[in-house]
Write a structure and sequence with these properties.
Blueprint lengths: L1 H23 L47 H17 L3 H10 L1 H6 L9 H23 L18 H10 L9 H11 L8 H10 L12 H13 L9 H9 L10 H15 L14 H6 L3 E4 L9 E3 L4 E4 L2 E3 L3 H15 L7 H12 L3 H9 L3 E3 L4 H11 L13 H12 L1 H13 L3 H29 L4
Parallel strand pairs: 1-3, 4-5
Antiparallel strand pairs: 2-3
Helix pairs in contact: 2-5, 3-5, 3-7, 5-7, 5-8, 8-9, 8-10, 13-14, 14-16, 15-16
Amino acid sequence: MALQQQWVINIQQKLDQGGQVETDELWTKHSIYKVPNWMKDGERPYDDRNAGYVPEIISFGPYHHGHSHLQQMEAHKWRVLNHMLKRETQDITLYLTAVKDLEPKARACYDSPVSLTNNQFVEMMVLDGCFVLEFLRGRAVGGYNHLGYKVNDPVFYKDSICHVIAMDLMKLENQIPLIVLQTLLEVQYKGNATIQDVPKLVMWALTPRWVTVNSPRTKEHLKDMRGVVATEHGSEPMVHCLDVFRRSLMYQPKSSPYNWCGLRLLWNKLKWEAGSFEEDSGQSMANCVSDLREAGIKFKPRNKLPFWDIQFKQSSGVLEIHPFKIDSASETVFRNLIAFEQCHMTNSWDMVVTNYIAFMDNLIDTAADVAYLHDAGILVHHLGSDGEVADLFNRLEKKVYVDTKKGGLSDVYQKLNEYCSHRSNRWRASLQNEYLSNPWVIISIFAALLLFLLTAVQTGYTVYAYYTPPS
């Protein structure tokens, strides 16, 4: 009986702990996550399952702090911090005190327990955060010589190293809370920094360097973009560098009088909630580029932002997609953006990148699909072959949850399915693809028709002459 009572007591203690966790609601503050195992590609070798998620050269934050393959950069972090303090003629205690005050908030950003002591955590935040700020400022404003670094600096003047550091800054598990970076920048600027300064640095330093083609790259457009991203994208504050980059992909120029993309998302959501999308309407399109072409659908580049806003015009059968590029960095960038949305967003409407990748994965099955999108001016890639690009997209959506019926592209799925269901469109496309795509075939058909017409005229004259002989 005593054993049974102790058993019940132990269970009650566990229930009390569970109730305490629910009361604390710490998960509402999480923004930096460890990528769940179920999202990692199980078909890869075990040692390669973290590919794309683990930093390659430098750690930021606690998740990969102290890992052996990242130790070489630790000495450079201290060197950079020392250089910054001497340049700004400031004492390290200013930074430690400022970060110490917000330590509980910074810890709460991480969804997994952090085993570091209070002092160790604050030291890591200051060291890593100051390095990130120096890296961003050098890439964004004036170059590293403007910050006092010599041209033979072993880190900042090595393009290959800076590229890898930038890639590591795009990884979900390797993020520093934006509130820490902003606090450090305020100390450095002696209180003159504004709330938008860190997002602006991220915009200048990291975007738009990946993903999109023909993105606004002039100073005027970038200035407009960073202002919009820093102040207008969503009511929730941005949480880290990867989040800033994600919101830059949703950028819409101020020249547009209305936020059509935002209205479109809202309209699709209202239609779904009202039941306007039928359950059997089949928004989960299974048609690749080759199949859609057989149905008469044409592909054209859409040179309007945001890049994920895909449009289909049923009247003309034209599918418009913003041009984008694929290179060695693309898989890592997309993987971490998707992981962030899967862990942080509450519903499919907010998973903009995930829905976009799911749509592109539907379009791209084979190397032939990639080749056609390239010829259409939609896809540019710097990989070894078209087949590698097709494999990349097919890998990206594995083990990722996406509800295409509730996503921002649900209306495009619906329109495409409706268009493909009409047999007349397929017959017209078959006629055009098989008989009217080759100019020599067209000339032959025209010649045959002309010959037939002349033969018919000659026959008509012969018959007419037979029945109406001359008088």
